[in-house]
Amino acid sequence: MKITDHLKKAKKPLISFEILPPLKGKGIQSIYDGIDPLMEFKPSFINVTYHREEYVYKKREKGYLEKFSIKKRPGTVGICAAIMNKYQIDAIPHIICGGFTKEETENALIDLNFLGIDNVMALRGDPIKTESAFVQEEGGHAYAVDLVKQINGLNKAEYFDEDLQNPIPTDFCIGVAGYPEKHFEAPNMKSDLKYLKNKVDAGAEYIITQLFYDNEKFKKFVKLCLDAGIDVPIIPGLKPITSKSQLQMLPKFFHIDLPNDLVDAIEKCKTDDAVKQVGIEWAIQQSKELIDFGAPCLHYYTMGKSVSTREIIKTVF
Known about the structure:
The protein is an alpha/beta fold. It has one domain: TIM Barrel (Alpha-Beta Barrel), CATH 3.20.20.220. The chain is 40% helix and 18% strand. It has 11 helices and 10 strands. It has helices at residues 3-9, 29-35, 76-87, 102-114, 144-154, 189-202, 215-227, 246-254, 260-267, 272-293, 307-316, and strands spanning 14-19, 45-48, 54-59, 65-70, 90-96, 119-123, 173-178, 206-211, 234-238, 297-301. The strands form 2 sheets. An 8-stranded parallel beta barrel has the order 1-2-5-6-7-8-9-10, surrounded by 5 helices. The chain has a two-stranded antiparallel ribbon with strand order 3-4. It is globular, with a radius of gyration of 20 Å. The two termini are 23 Å apart.
């Protein structure tokens, strides 16, 4: 079922999760172990992130460096199919620009369509560790809006092979990312909202936000979106803090601010268990306020670790 249909039929706020593919060398059971404890809450869908290949250089004889491609995690197509088969729940693969040509993207979408997967998240993706900024794949897309246009084109039976006879259109429901605190590469929020509206105008049907810890920023973001003519559902993304080290890691990698009260409470903690409890209580309060605000769904970034998320949902729903 399409995410937009889930939202239209819902009589109360929905629940969804986001997980990581397992590390290379691990099996699908590691995915199931993270999902099983959450299934009692009947999530409407599960997002599966995509991690592109990276490159390392190994020193050879005479000082030469040889470039090797490595992939730390398997792709999402098979994982989404396995999740849908086991749990009878919609799985949403992340489709990214980085590392793919347009033809490779089309082939991946064709595979997803064959498997009956009719929801996708269209993202530009992050630069790999060896890049100081995002580098467009030769023959690929530079921006998420162009990826949205390609997916929407397939929904109109627009394939690269123009000689196809009576091609069947796909029927993907397209989601995109939104940033309540602005994408770090955008010069200001007005510009960021312009790019977001372009994605919606190109065919995106719902938005899932970057994680945040200040609900007022989400509320302001929703209003700014409405003022900008963005009228698709906006789903807030939440991630409970679980360790003190995340006070430095989260702002660095996600370019977000942490509220003073949250930072003060975590800095007073003596153990990681105490930090987890603070994170759970903060996310519980966030969740309740967002439900009261009218959020259509709460999207939890579990990343395969379900303990904190389970405690939050047990209290809130």
